[in-house]
Amino acid sequence: MVEPRRAVVLLSGGLDSATALAVARAEGFETNALTVFYGQRHATELVAARAVAKMLGAAQHVELALDLRCFGGSALTADIDVPKDRPLSDIAHGIPVTYVAARNSIFLAVALGWAEVLGAFDIFVGVNALDYSGYPDCRPEFIAAFEQLANLATKAGVEGPGRFRIHAPLIDLSKAQIIQRGMYLGVDYGVTCSCYDPDPGTGLACGRCDSCQLRSRGFTEAGVADPTRYRHG
What we know:
By secondary structure, the chain is an alpha/beta fold. The chain has helices at about 15-25, 45-55, 90, 105-120, 140-150, 155-160, 175-185, 210-220; strands at about 5-10, 30-35, 60-65, 120-125, 165. The protein contains 8 helices and 5 strands.
């Protein structure tokens, strides 16, 4: 019996990670979704991640608690206001206060550990370098460097039958292109959550944070109706 090609997919519950999971499935991988609850204020995305994993047929969905609030330092993990209503021209310049220190390094390290246990050499992450809001850990240089680290720092990488690959299939796509690709692959974006500051009771998106603005513009440019439920609408 042929062993399935396994992959670990980092799944936040947002638009990009849902698309990355759909891409991995379309490429024939058995997908194992990993969602990290890191103390983020937008914990509504955890509910979304469960819905996405079910919708896209993940073989396993692991939810890992790793509370980064003990460090703080970000509007997502500390009592710092989430920026609202920033001009779109400003969003891609500079590193915003919603940056969580070394977040993707931490998440990929955990995904790497699980992948090694599963015997998987493929890890998917939905980072994007065009509409990336200034985050340094969403750049191609970071992905290439982490892939090199993965093959140096693990038993599987040194002695195993293959080499680890960090797949970032959305890294050079615009938000509109990501949405178009996801729609083609059957993603229902109505179950995803991208907002940095959703209503804690209803989960409705604020419509004003950087992430909401980029998401909204993406649907407009893709010519697709935005299924997001906003507080003001």
